[in-house]
Amino acid sequence: MAAALRDRCNRQxxxxxxxxxxxxxxxxxxxxxxxxxxxxxxxxIRNVFLSVEPAMRGWVSSEANYSEPVPLGGVMRSFAVGRVxxxxxxxxxxxxxxxxxFGWQDYAVVDGAAVQRRIADTTIPVSSALGVLxxxxxxxxxxxxDIGQPxxxxxxxxxxxxxxxxxxxxxxxxxxxxxxxxxxGGAEKVRLCRDAFGYDVAIDYxxxxxxxxxxxxxxxxxxxxxxxxxxxxxxxxxxxxxxGARVVVCGTASIAxxxxxxxxPRVERTLLVKRARMQGFVIFDHADRYDExxxxxAEWIKQGRLRYREDILDGIEQAPDAIAGLxxxxxxxxxxxxxxxxxxx
Amino acid sequence: MAAALRDRCNRQxxxxxxxxxxxxxxxxxxxxxxxxxxxxxxxxIRNVFLSVEPAMRGWVSSEANYSEPVPLGGVMRSFAVGRVxxxxxxxxxxxxxxxxxFGWQDYAVVDGAAVQRRIADTTIPVSSALGVLxxxxxxxxxxxxDIGQPxxxxxxxxxxxxxxxxxxxxxxxxxxxxxxxxxxGGAEKVRLCRDAFGYDVAIDYxxxxxxxxxxxxxxxxxxxxxxxxxxxxxxxxxxxxxxGARVVVCGTASIAxxxxxxxxPRVERTLLVKRARMQGFVIFDHADRYDExxxxxAEWIKQGRLRYREDILDGIEQAPDAIAGLxxxxxxxxxxxxxxxxxxx
Lengths: 345, 345
Description:
Two copies of one chain form a homodimer. The first copy, chain A, contains ten helices and 16 strands. The radius of gyration of chain A is 21 Å and the shape is globular.
């Protein structure tokens, strides 16, 4: 390892205590550690962009979940985009852009096999690998098309419609010929839904009267509901399901705490009477289709048919509060933390 | 029309008032009317067996539903099996056994096209056309196989497991190589589940501790849940879903009143974390597949692999209280009302 690197410090954001509900700044601590040299078959990566996801709430929870909890004292699990600094793996060379679960830290040493992929095409900004060409876009594409099965002319409702997943869902539904109705919180996000993401209608749930607005907006019912929030927003949409509707359960952003499980209106009769389907989606089950989805998404971006927005925080010290901020609705677009310049190797 | 018939009385069970929730005896009245002669293209039918279904709760409700409400003062809608007395339609002759929506009454005059089918094969008792070879069996077959998609070795849980639909579901799941767990109310039904319907395990939910019993019985989780009850029984089963589980929402027998919609534990997170699917099923959407399903069911009955049980009330005066009795759990098997002998034409 170059002497200059050995002198550098690897700041790590570690999980200090386990939150009940949404992780807040106080649940993390930033610790200075030395940069470690890569072993045989490993690469040393300088992280440039760290990802911030709603799903991180689950990753730090000890509740039953779809992933192992981050251990207490461990580096916060996170996707990141960075550049290879030093490689002892034949597939990677210094300067390569890569993405993987490199964690919330300046530097990561990982096995070559743990690199999710090398970002070969840099004509689209590399940060997109964490959003529209990463989990968010892949989720939108696969969950909407596989579970939602939108058909031209149908009405597709999306919650957190201006968010990293939602904005992508709305645009793909539009590409598929659907009428799109976005639900978002606040005037600015509603404006984004209309102006940037092409929703036919955007509703500000914070302005109240969501029931009446949905009734007016969806006179023939909701054929597909892409649900990123759960809770009262979903309750309102579920009342409007059309016969044969599909509900994609992709996230539960509106529910801060699942222990104990909060109560809501029972869905059994709605599902029965409407012969509707409600199905959960976790992107990690679909790794074998990432390439297919990413190719389609990149093509749409290049054609100007798919737009995305990023909300970039500067500096690793922003990380501890960044998840809580997502749940407060602070961000406009995919939330990232930039911790180095593009040329930082 | 033969003079003898003209002298007979057609007792009709009519909807007197609209129930909030489960229809009780007081919501019906029995009215004596004359027997009407069939017009051109019509048949006069002497009903022998009247059906009693949980779904009738919905048929008399003015709430949004999957069928038009029975009008106040109208004859209660019902499937019935009867014999043709007089035919002015070329497809039917006196003595033919037929099934259709003939209503809760002694005699029905209907258009030939309104006869659902002629029961040609009487090697299986004709009453089965209202149960295991009727809506109940067809529902069990199509809903389980299409939505539940049971695979050999999987665990299938059924609520109202000894009921007309549930008992059939359990046996079909067993034929498909699954492990079956039935939930029923009371020792007698639990015994039926084990002895008559071949469930691997039967649980009496009235004996308490359903959570613990399900945990013990389904150590690897529930792959398919065929839900005829909704409510607290379903809440308990949903806690045990395996990854990729399918929940068939077929009935909501445990919930007496849906106005206002009762509260229950929110299902969003369970569906998400377990990538599970919950889907409503209404048999009337699948009329094009009745023949296929009925052929398979009849074959299994003849092979002795599919058993069914009937709960036969005698006399039309039993009808008004018969639906309420279903919801009280009074019946063991498919509930029917016999209002004439087999030879009554």
